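User: Hi! I'm working on a homework problem where we have to compare a predicted structure to a textbook description. Could you give me the structure for the chain below?
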Amino acid sequence: MRWRRLRRRCQGMIDGLPVPAPFSAPELCARLAVERERPLPLWPLPTPAVPDMPTRIWLATEHEDFWWIFFTFRLTADTTCGLVCWRHSRQESIPRSLRYGLGLFGTGMLLATLLWLLKLGYRGTRSTLFTPPFSSVTGAEALFLAVGVALPFLIQMRDLLRYHRFHRSLAPLWRDLVAAAPDVVLAPGNRLRAATIPIQLRLYRRVIEIRDAMIVLRSYVTQATADQVRRHVTDQAVPDHLAYTHMTACWLTAAPHHRRSGQTPEAQSLNLSGGGAQDLSEEISYLLRIAAAHRSPITNHQSPITNHQSSTNTGPCCPARITRGDSLLCSLLSP
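Assistant: Happy to help. Predicted structure tokens:
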């Protein structure tokens, strides 16, 4: 019913128009201007085929100052927004992805400022020199605004994927250490509950638990063990920049077996705390290097002596079945 009433209303308005016969756009505008007592200028668009082809009718509003007020307001608002975004994009305290996004978004708003300036110029002069840049400026504005909004989100998604990768890479080292020192686990729970925790917090908790386990297990590393670990890594010709992480991985492999064999923890006089990380990113990088060394053949190296000891069970601390098959480990555990 509503559409029928609207159709009848529009049809009545059309029937009431003083349409000239034959039809002429300039004549129609002239008749409407007389009835409305306001000018209705018709602006031509020069084309090769029809030099004076009409393109649109400019319907004047009741108050001519409306468009001046509207354009000026938009110009002021967009300029303020663009300058504020640019100012905050230069602050070092804001995350880098957000700073980039604010810079791009502010550029888009300043392009909108340029668009309103062009429209004000066209409004004041009616010159066609102002109209050609409309489309290109609008397109550039939309592009910068879209990229500025999407960039922080895309960078955040990249960071989340990287956090998931770090979390998985630390999992083998974490499982071995918390199995030897289960008291360091902060909040044991089911996997469904853990999945609801943000990955940043899960990764942070995993780093804390690994570090706490290292503090517990280093009490089971003696000076003799540390010297033997150092000789083993030196014999394997490990590069200098990886030597410390491989030595850490080796004593982390030996310490749980010392603890399970009943060795009494000793006050730690060795510097086994690891590299001095300044922030969480450096700490994660350091633990990732240890996790990689923990899985390396140097740490899990087998030799005929190990196989012989594991098969004959001659060593009191070497079980008949060695889980990690580590020749260094067996030599450290044997008397």
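For your comparison, note the following. Strands lie at 42-45, 53-57. Confidence is low (pLDDT under 50) at residues 302-335. Good luck with the assignment!
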